[in-house]
Structures are given as C-alpha cells and as structure tokens.
Amino acid sequence: MAKAKNIFYCKECGTETGKWQGQCPGCGEWNTLVEAPDTGAPGRKTGTGAARAGQAEPAKLKDITIENEHRMMTGIGELDRVLGGGIVAGSLVLVGGDPGIGKSTLLLQMCKMLSDQGEKILYVSGEESLKQIKLRGDRIGEFSDSIYLLSETNISAIDHAIGKIQPVVVIVDSIQTMYDERIDAAPGSISQVREITSILLRIAKSRGISIFIVGHVTKEGNVAGPRMLEHMVDTVLYFEGDSAAAYRILRGVKNRFGSTNEIGVFEMKGKGLVEVPNPSEYMMQGKPVGESGSVVACAVEGTRSFMIEVQALVCHTYFNMPRRTAAGTDYNRINLLIAVLEKRLGIRLSDSDAYVNVAGGMRITEPALDLAIITAIMSSHSGRAMDDRTVIFGEVGLVGEVRAVPQAEKRVAEAMKTGYQTCILPEANKKMMEKGGGLDLSGIRLVGIRNIRELADQICMNIT
After folding, report:
1. Which of 103, 136, 266, 394 could form a disulfide with 371 if both were Cys (CB 3.0 to 4.6 A apart)?
2. With contact defined as beta carbons under 8 Å apart, do 408 and 423 qualify?
3. Which phi and psi angles does 435 have, rounded to 5°?
4. Do strands 87-88 and 71-72 pair parallel, antiparallel, or not at all (unpaired)?
C-alpha cells in the first residue's frame, strides 16, 4: 500500500510545495506554510489537465458579447448597495466578521425578504441546530414556507439537498465547519476549505445559484483559512464594528460585479439589523459644541460620502516616552502627521500624549483625513475650538504641503447638504471646482490652502 503523501500550503497565497520552508516561495511571507494531505486535485495531473486544456478554444475579444447580468434585489437597501445593486445569479459571496457581529442575523433577514418575494431559499448551518435557527428567526419576524433549513456539515449531503430543492439562494454557515469525506483532514483545515469552496463555486456557476458562505476570522481580522479563499469567490464582504456597540459597518473589499470599498451602515436592535440610510446624521449625533479637539471631516467610501467627527486629545505626559493612540484610523499615519507638525510648525509634542479618535466606530484610512487630524491636534494643543459650521479635508505631505484629494465635489456637496457654511480644502481642489462649475457653490464658502502654515493662520491657532 502506497504511503499517503503530504504537501505544504501557504496560508496567505495558496502556493504548494513538497517540503516545508521558512519563507513561502510564492508571496515571500514567513512561517505561513502548513502541512496538509495531498488531495490529488485534477489540475496537478498532467494527463487529465492536458486533455481538458485541449477542449478549450481561444476566442477573439471583439467577438465576445456582453449581457447585463440579472440582479435580484434583497429588499435590504444597504446590502444591495454593497453588493453593487443586488444579488447576481451564480455568484459566490464570502461574508466575514468577528463573532457576534451580526453575520448570521443579516443573512437570515435577507432570507426572509427573499422568501417574502416567493424565492426559494436554503439555509445550511453547521454550527446551530434547526431549533436555534428557528428561535433567531422568530425574533426577526414571520417566515414564509419557501425557506428551507438544513443542519448538515457533509458537503455531499448539502449538494444532494441543493439538487433536490433547487433553491435560488443558498446560505452556508460556516465554511470552516463543512467537510468532504473524500479528504483525510479535519473540518476547517486548508485542504477542506479549499475543496469545499471549489465544490460550492462549481455548484454556483453550473446551476446559476447564488451562494453566500460565512467565514470565521482570525485575531488579525482576516478570514481564517488560505488567502486563496478570497481570490476564488466573486465578492468579499466584511462586517466591522464593536459587538457591544449599536452600529455595524458592512464593507465590500472585493466585488467583481460592482465597486469595491462600498459600505452599508446598520444598527443592531432587538428584532435584528436596521438600515441607516443617512450615515452623516448618525455620525454627528452627540458631537460636542464649542469644544477644542473636535473637527468635522468628509470621508468617501466607494460611492458614498458622509460626515465624520475627528477627535484629538493632547495632554502633558509624565513619562519619558509619550503615548500615541489611534482609534478608527492608521496609527503610523498619526505618528507621521505629529512629526510634520513638530518639524514644519514648531509645535512641541514630544512631551505630550496624543490620542486621536474617529467617532462613531468607523475605520477611515484614506489620506483625505490628514488635514482634519492635524487641525484636531492643533485645536486640542492650543485649547481653541474650531467653528462648528466648518468642515475640513485634504492630504498632507511630509514637507507640510496640502495635496488635492479625489471626489472633492462630492465632499463639498455633502457638506452643503448637511448644513455646513465653510469648507477648508486643498487649493488645487478649489481651483478645479471653480473652473469646472459643475456644482453651485453659492451656499458655502470655500477656503483653499496650500500648506499647513496657511491652515494655522486661517483658523488662528496659537502655534508657538
């Protein structure tokens, strides 16, 4: 009897190798190779691969016709927005997020809305019993008779149930609990996750069934398993936010049928997740009036612009090493902006602790937030409050210059709609907007700046 052969997979990129190495030869990451049994995938058999390759014929690009993909509306506007306008038939969607964040609740609500439209739905759970799902469903509302529940972890049984019921949408919760009995590995291992995803992808594409799979995340916030899992699916959605907080952010980080980095905002209530159609309104709730260290900025995620509050607290430190804390934005970016302030404006922050927070629990990493962060730090350091009717955005370089940011007109339009009267923005953006003339600027005063010294003069901060 031949000895079973094991190979090594990279958890990040999926590269295969016959022996263990400290560094992955594919992506260059260290300590990412793990051992798994060789599943004997058809792609690694040269004879079968060559035969299949011979059946494919190349086609001319200009001869390929494009048809608009059929989209099915879920009835949840924020989810449809993140998906790019609804569910595409035959798509494979991965939903990740921390435990208790609301992944299963959102998908069950989607099932309810689709079943009310008369669509046939199959909800497969490998973690909960049918009674547990029923109890959660009763909190959401009354379900129609077109939704089916299945508590199963064997992919063969799930495939048989899909063929028998012929649903339009299938939910698999979660991918790490499913297994294929033909593979000698535990559920959740790299071999099982790769094979299960491949089977679900084949089912989705061959039968035109939209499949949503739930994925557990690691402590770093990434979906557990090989990184190749995210490359195989059509759409990757991440649920963000604190499970103890009321608001949740659904972010699309990959979408073959729509824009990426689109977000949907939800509020967790007793009967499930409720849409927040106007994020600017809820982001500004509770904003202090006339307090130093509080600045309003305008961020853009995907096709949506919204107002956010940037807070900073600068206080004297009693330790040799001052503390820097960032919540909702990049920590290294905060250190960089503090260094620019010290070098270009002479503000001494080496003897002060600095805390920066993006209020509302949302994480914003775009450089357009730089100018608001610097303004908030200057405001807290000087003790002078910013005008509550002013919004600020712009990117700051290492020499203190203020660079133009994309979609400035959309940001200014959002500020006008929300009722702000003054907008401090990069001079380059101001010139382009005044030259273009696509937006009526009569309701707002634009203040263009070229560097952070002009910013300090404009807002009358004491920088000594």
Report:
1. 394
2. no
3. -75, -40
4. antiparallel
Cis peptide before 151 (omega within 30 of 0): no
| First-residue to last-residue Cα distance in the chain | 81
Non-local (6+) Cβ contacts of 275 within 8 A are: 76, 77, 78, 264, 265, 266, 267
Q: Pull the structure tokens for residue 15.
A: 């590269």
| Across 41-54, average pLDDT | 42
Q: Give the residues across from 310 on adjacent strands.
A: 295, 358
> Does residue 104 have a cis bond before it (omega within 30 degrees)?
no
What distances in angstroms separate CA 245 from CA 101, 360, 362, one per listed residue?
Answer: 10, 9, 11
Burial string for 263-279 (b: 16+ CB within 10 Å, else e) reads bbbbebeeebbeebeeb
> Which residues does residue 422 pair with via DSSP β-bridges, in sequence order?
390, 445
Residue 379 identity (one-letter amino acid): S
Q: Do 34 and 24 contact (CB within 8 A), yes or no?
A: no
- The pTM is what? 0.77
C-alpha count within 13 angstroms, C-beta hemisphere, residue 57 = 3
The two three-digit tokens of residue 376, written as one number: 């908030």
Looking at per-residue confidence, does 43 or 338 come out higher?
A: 338
412 vs 414: CA distance, rounded Å: 5
Whether the Cβ atoms of residue 284 and residue 414 lie closer than 8 Å to each other: no
SS3 of the chain: helix, strand, coil, percent, to 5 = 30, 25, 40
Q: Which residues of 59-69 are buried (b: 16+ CB within 10 A; e: fewer)?
A: eeeeeeeeeee
Give tens-digit pLDDT for 396-452: 999 999 999 999 999 999 999 999 999 999 999 999 998 876 788 888 999 999 999
Q: Which residue has the tokens 């051992």?
A: 35
Token digits of residue 367? 């450089």
